[in-house]
Amino acid sequence: MKGFLPITIAIVGLIATATIFVALTLPLFVLKYHLAINIQQEYDYNNAQLILLTLLSYKYNESYSMYQVLAERDVNGFDDSMKAKIEEVGKILTTGKCFRIVNQTSTVFEISNCQAKKSSGEVYIFKPYNKQSLVEKLVLVYE
Amino acid sequence: MVKALMSSRQKKKSKGLIISLSLILGSLFVIAVIGLIFWIFVSRILEVHVAVDEYTNERHAINLANLLLSSEKIVYEKEGKLMRGILDAEKLDKIFSREDSFSVANPIDIGIGYPNSITIVRILDLESCSASGDCKGWAAVLAGPTSLEGLSMTKFISCLSEHVKLDVGSIFRWAVGGILMGLWQPWDLKNCVQNTIPASIKSLFTNSEISSEGFPVLIKYPNSDLHLGRMSVAVGEFL
């Protein structure tokens, strides 16, 4: 039985060392991980809001803004050239990331072959001549 | 008979001692190895940063960018209303420097900034970029009020301007080979902090994709042209 004592001491020492090691290092990783995620979320939210704001303020052509394109799409139509312009500007603003614009009930615009679902920013726009509601919430979702 | 019995007992005792000694030494060796691994990990591999302060620093950069994007000093005004995210090129010309006249050595005070800090603000017109990635734009160094004893912002900025000259192209370069260009380089900062900032003062600088990527903006020119742009804000703080 006496022969087991050193083994017991070694095992206890090993466990104690491992416990101290984990106890010292693990909180550092957990803390850093949480802080990193929080700041990234803060940036992504701000970025998404500004992308949407910039997109809506941008011009579609000399007399028509992107805001009007999206707000009056049910009245004036929403053709392929309009969608192409949104895709072109959106890709510059999102630095080439996948994105889509949705409202409360449906998808307003999305790039084919990609399904964005990570970060989002939202903005309310006026929707003239709309029977259901004169205000629409647009949400930009991007990767 | 008795002698043989005693000899056998002595042998057993010494055998037990040898086993115990080797096990203790083995255990000590294992503990020493674990301790050594831990020491190597802590001293060579694990790099402990003051995460809370650093991320506060990143948050300050985001807050400052948001503030600037709504500030009447640079934002376009339409019928008395500030258009958030739309920058007025005429206002920028008055406060910021263009790409041909920008110098880190000339900080300005527009009343926006954190105390004991240095901020570089870069605004790039993305519709004016050349094939090599060089863009037209504006930049400024904003210096906040100094209250720390022994901190000479002038010395630090002077040192930074000497080194940033080497990378001056990067200030007005949006991306090279798909990689976004930061506003300052870590080696420039490290060198200047070592040479001009007292060891008792802690230095924290934004050094992430957040400050390099910046936020999207629109730039309104006097001829009513609207251009897509990008505003990046890098903050360095001394505590």
* Residue windows where pLDDT falls under 50 for at least 5 positions of chain A: none
Average pLDDT of chain A works out at 84
| Low-pLDDT windows of residues of chain B | none
- Name the structural class of chain A: alpha+beta
The main β sheet of chain B shows up as: 8 strands, mixed
What is the domain total for the residues of chain B? 1
Question: Descriptors for this entry?
Answer:
heterodimer; A: 143 residues; alpha+beta; 4 strands; B: 239 residues; two-stranded antiparallel sheet
Q: Secondary structure elements and their pairing?
A:
The complex is a heterodimer of chains A (143) and B (239).
Chain A: H1 4-57, H2 66-71, H3 73-76, H4 80-93, E1 99-102, E2 107-110, E3 119-126, E4 135-142
Antiparallel strand pairs in A: 1-2, 1-4, 3-4
Chain B: H1 2-45, H2 51-68, E1 75-78, E2 81-88, H3 89-95, E3 97-98, E4 117-125, E5 136-143, H4 153-164, H5 168-171, E6 175-176, E7 179-180, H6 186-196, E8 203-205, H7 209-213, E9 215-220, E10 226-238
Parallel strand pairs in B: 2-9
Antiparallel strand pairs in B: 1-2, 3-5, 4-5, 4-10, 6-7, 8-10, 9-10
Helix pairs in contact in B: 4-6
Quickly describe the structure.
The complex is a heterodimer of chains A (143) and B (239). With 143 residues, chain A is of the alpha+beta class.
Describe the overall structure.
The complex is a heterodimer of chains A (143) and B (239). Chain A contains four helices and four strands; from the N terminus they run H-H-H-H-E-E-E-E. With 143 residues, chain A is of the alpha+beta class. In chain A, strands 2-1-4-3 form a four-stranded antiparallel β-sheet. In chain A, strand 1 (99-102) and strand 2 form a beta hairpin. Chain B is of the alpha+beta class. Chain B has one domain (56-238). Chain B contains seven helices and ten strands. In chain B, the strands form two sheets. In chain B, strands 1, 2, 3, 4, 5, 8, 9 and 10 form an eight-stranded mixed β-sheet that branches. A two-stranded antiparallel ribbon of chain B has the order 6-7. In chain B, helix 4 runs antiparallel to helix 6 (186-196). The longest helix of chain B has 44 residues, at 2-45. The termini of chain B are far apart. The model of chain B has no long low-confidence stretch (mean pLDDT 79).
